Amino acid sequence: MVLRNTLRNRLRTIAGLFAAAMGAAVLVNAWMMADAMRYFLDFQFRYLLRSDMDLTFKDERSDDALLEAARLPGVDRAEPFLAVACTFRNGPYAKKSSITGLERGAQLTVPRDREARAIRIPAAGLAMSRTLAEILHLKRGDTVTIEPVKGLRRARDVPVLEIADGYFGMTVYGDIRYLSQLIGEELALSGVQLALDGEQSHLAALYRELKRLPALEGVAARADVIAGIEETVLKHQWVVIDVMIVFAGIVFFGSIVNASLVSLAERQREVATLRVLGYGPWQVGSLLLRESMIVTMLGSVLGMPMGYLLTATTVWSYNSEMFRVPIVTRPGTWGWTLVLAVAFGLVAHLFVQRSIHRMAWPDALKAQE
User: Fold this and answer.
1) Which has more pLDDT, 244 or 174?
2) Which of 172, 196, 227, 264 could form a disulfide with 52 if both were Cys (CB 3.0 to 4.6 A apart)?
3) Same domain for 81 and 180?
C-alpha cells in the first residue's frame, strides 16, 4: 500500500512537472513571437527605412527631380534612390533581385547588420543582403556577376564589400553614382525619399502638390505602411498570443487543481490530524500551496528552453526569401513567464482552499485506513 501511494505521488509529480513545462513553453513562445514582431517593425522602420514618404517616378529622372522634391511643402530632407533589377550570378548559382542605389551618408535608408549597426555604402561595390549572399554562396570580399535589366544591360563583375541584414526581401545596396554608371547613366533617380516636418497644414499642401506632378508613379507614406502591417499582421498576432496565454493558463490551472484535489482526497486523515493539532484551514492550505508551487516553478524553469526551441521552430517555418522573423529574447520574457505561472497557481489554489474549508475533517479522522 505504501509503495503504491509512493508510486502514485511520483507519477502525479511528474505529470505536474510536465504540465507546468508545457504551460511555460507556450508562454515563452507567445512572448518571444510578440517581441519578434515588435523588433521587426523597429528594425525596418526605425533603423533601416527612416523616411516619412517615398516618391517613385514612372521613368528614371535626373538630379533636377531631387531639387524639385526638396522644395515641396513640409520637406525637411530629400534623398535620391535608384532601383535596378538585376540577375546575380556566382558560378552555377543565380538569383533575380534588385540593387538600391543610395547616396553615401544617406540618413533615410541606412543598411544595417545583425546588431542593427549602420554599415557603409561602398563607393565601388555592393552591400548585399545576407539571405541573397547565402543563396549565391558568397561572402564578404567575393565577386558577383550582375546583369542589369535596364540601361546598357552588360554583365559586370562587382565586389561584395559588405553584408547587410534585414527581414524583408533581398535588397542589395550600392552607391547611386556607381550604380548609375553601371547602367550607362551619369546620375539616374528612380525616386526620392522625404523627411517631413510633421506640420498637418504642410502635409495637406504636400499632397496637393503631388497630385499635380505627372511624373510620379507612386507615393508611399511610412505611417500608412506601418498602420497596414499593424492591422494585417500584428492585430492577428496579438489574437494568437492571447489565445496562447489562455491555453497556458488552462494547462497550469487544470494541472494544479487536479493534482492538489487528488492529493487532498488521499490525505484527508493527515489533514484532519493537522486540524486536531491546531492548524487552521489556511495553514493547511499553505502546505499544499508550497508543494504545488515547487512543482510549478520547477516545471516552468524546465519548460523555458522548450519554449525557446518551439519559437525557433516556428520562426524557421515562417522564414522565406521574402520575409523573415527574428528570434528575440528579452529578460522580461523569462520574468513574465514565472510571474504568470505563479499567478495561475495562486488562482488555482483558491479552489483547493475552498475544498479544505468545506472538508468534514472529524469524519475523515474517524475513517478507517
Assistant:
1) 174
2) 196
3) yes
Mean pLDDT of 273-279: 72
Helix (H, G, I), strand (E, B) or coil at 56: strand
Q: Do both 160 and 58 map to the same domain?
A: yes
Specify whether the CB–CB gap between 117 and 109 falls below 8 A. Answer: no
- The pLDDT tens digits of the residues spanning 12-29 come to 777 778 888 888 888 888
Give me the domain span that covers residue 312: 2-45+229-366
Q: Residues 256, 362: one domain? A: yes
Q: Please state, in angstroms and rounded to a whole number, the distance separating the CA atoms of residues 279 and 293.
A: 20
Under DSSP, is residue 218 helix (H, G, I), strand (E, B) or coil? strand
Q: How many CB atoms lie within 10 A of CB 154?
A: 11
Nearest to 307 by CA among 40, 36, 14, 10: 36
Query: How many Cβ atoms are within 10 Å of 291's Cβ, its own excluded?
Result: 15
What pLDDT sits at residue 238? Answer: 76
**Burial, 153: exposed, middle or buried (Cβ in 10 Å; 0-12, 13-18, 19+)?**
exposed
Residues 6+ apart with CB under 8 A from 354: none
Residue 108 gets which letter from DSSP?
A: S
Region of 325 on the Ramachandran plot (φ > 0 left; ψ -120 to 50 alpha; else beta):
beta
Assess if residue 224 is contained within a domain.
no
CB 178 within 8 A of CB 123: yes
Residues 236 and 356 in one domain: yes
pLDDT at residue 366, rounded to an integer: 59
How many C-beta atoms lie closer than 10 Å to residue 252's C-beta?
A: 29
CA angle 71, 68, 99 (to 5 degrees): 120
Long-range contacts of 220-223 (CB under 8 A, 24+ apart): 220/53, 220/54, 220/56, 221/52, 221/53, 222/45, 222/49, 222/51, 222/52, 222/53, 222/54, 223/52
Q: How many domains, the chain?
A: 2
Rounded to 5°, angle at Cα 328 from 323 and 329: 165
C-alpha atoms less than 13 angstroms from C-alpha of 157 in its C-beta half-sphere: 5
Residue 293 CA to residue 35 CA, distance in Å, equals 28
Per-residue pLDDT tens for 29-65?
A: 888 888 888 888 888 888 898 999 999 998 888 888 8
pTM of the predicted model as reported, rounded to 2 decimal places: 0.76
